[in-house]
Amino acid sequence: MSQPGKQAVALTSTGEEQRCRYDESYFLMYREDPKRVAMYREERGRIETLKPNGGRILDVGCGIGGFLSEFDTQNWDCYGVDVADLAIKEARSRGIKVNDFSEAYAYPDQFFDVIVFRGSIQLIPTPFFVIETCIRLLKPGGYLVFLATPNSNSLYYWRFKTLPFLTPHGNFLIPSDIMMKNALQNFGLDVIDIRYPYLGGPYANPLRDHFLYFLSFFGVRREFPFWRSSMEIYARKPDN
């Protein structure tokens, strides 16, 4: 069994500061965006390819619950973690099980079949501690999945020293594919796939994006999606 009190000290040391960052204005970008919903559905499909029979899924940084709401509750038992009271309340209203943040990870060991970090690992003050905690909560044979995750090992980051979807005031770590693969393997996971979903994605416009990249050398600066700026990592916890 987990030890909620001990975890709370490590996981909530900056909780109040974090709560102040994520208010209604922050979550506006997650509402009424058909392109985001299209991404959610594509990502859900890849997870369901790994776990066609469903199971318990935890979304770390679930926000208002949009991603988990795409999963069929007949097959999936949906849980979330978030620091913002606003997000926790709305996710619960969608039927997602979310603990108060002081007890965010208070679940039995080997409880979940899939644990997802969707665009959240860079926003966590203690990212590797939380990853290690999640691995403990993951069943043998279960999957740890990173979606919509920034990749500093990319042309965009090399050029601009940032990425278009980062939250400037909230980043603690800008990961790379190399860093994450090394860390997950050192934690004992099998990294089974790393994907870079740009071409064919709902936000991509290759002609425009490449033109804007070219114009950046002449002082024109605009945000745009680009190759390898975002990554997905699928890792499996070995069977006992």
Describe this entry's structure for a reader:
The chain has one domain: 3-Layer(aba) Sandwich (Rossmann fold), CATH 3.40.50.150. It has helices at residues 4-11, 15-21, 24-27, 34-50, 85-93, 127-137, 155-160, 177-186, 206-215, and strands spanning 55-60, 76-81, 97-98, 112-118, 138-150, 190-195, 230-236. The protein has 240 residues and is of the alpha/beta class. The radius of gyration is 18 Å and the shape is globular. Strands 3-2-1-4-5-7-6 form a 7-stranded mixed β-sheet, sandwiched between helices.
- Please name the CATH topology: Rossmann fold
Secondary-structure-derived class:
alpha/beta
- What would CATH call the homologous superfamily? Vaccinia Virus protein VP39
Largest sheet: 7 strands, mixed
Treating each run of at least 4 consecutive H or I residues as one helix, how many helices?
9
CATH architecture: 3-Layer(aba) Sandwich
Number of domains: 1
Topology:
Layout: H1 4-11, H2 15-21, H3 24-27, H4 34-50, E1 55-60, E2 76-81, H5 85-93, E3 97-98, E4 112-118, H6 127-137, E5 138-150, H7 155-160, H8 177-186, E6 190-195, H9 206-215, E7 230-236
Parallel strand pairs: 1-2, 1-4, 2-3, 4-5
Antiparallel strand pairs: 5-7, 6-7
